[in-house]
TrEMBL record:
GO terms for molecular function: carbon-sulfur lyase activity; metal ion binding. InterPro entries: CENP-V/GFA, Mss4-like_sf. This is Mss4-like protein. Keywords: Lyase, Metal-binding, Zinc. Pfam families: GFA. Residues 4-118 form the CENP-V/GFA domain.
């Protein structure tokens, strides 16, 4: 079974998960834009039972998204890297949303399956061919 590891920028918090993500999703919502200071986040939806923290203890902050969904952001208390997000909303409840940029190695080279909140995507970013486009969380 495939095992993937990841960490924050200062390496004090690390995690691992087994198997492949159920879905790979880019999100263009305002909260993800603010989180990254860019135009989107790239999230790997990993079943919660396949994920474990391997070192350190992340801190958690809860935010209410534009859609009304409550999301917990788990980050390093030292360097503030957000490692995963989680929500009790039906579509996300079975998963942790692993922030793809925190994965060690080249695992983030894979193409996403879906783009969320394309209604917030900047006009200069084209739709990715063959990737489902969702104006919001539907």
């Amino acid at each position: 079974m495939t095992s993937v590891s990841g960490s924050c920028i200062c390496k004090k918090i690390s995690y691992a998960y087994t198997g492949n993500p159920t879905k790979k999703a880019i999100c263009h919502c305002r909260e993800c834009q603010k989180l990254t200071g860019s135009t989107f986040t790239y999230n790997f939806l990993v079943p919660r039972e396949n994920f474990k923290w391997t070192s350190g203890s992340p801190k958690s902050n809860r935010f209410i998204q534009e859609s009304g969904i409550e999301v917990d952001y788990h980050s390093c208390p030292e360097c503030a890297t957000v490692l995963i997000k989680e929500s009790e909303a039906d579509m996300f409840k079975p998963f942790y949303l692993v922030q793809a940029g925190t994965i060690d190695g080249n695992d983030i080279k894979t193409k996403p399956d879906v783009e969320f909140w394309t209604s917030r995507k900047p006009d200069w970013i084209a739709a990715i061919a063959g990737v489902e486009q969702m104006a919001q969380f539907e």
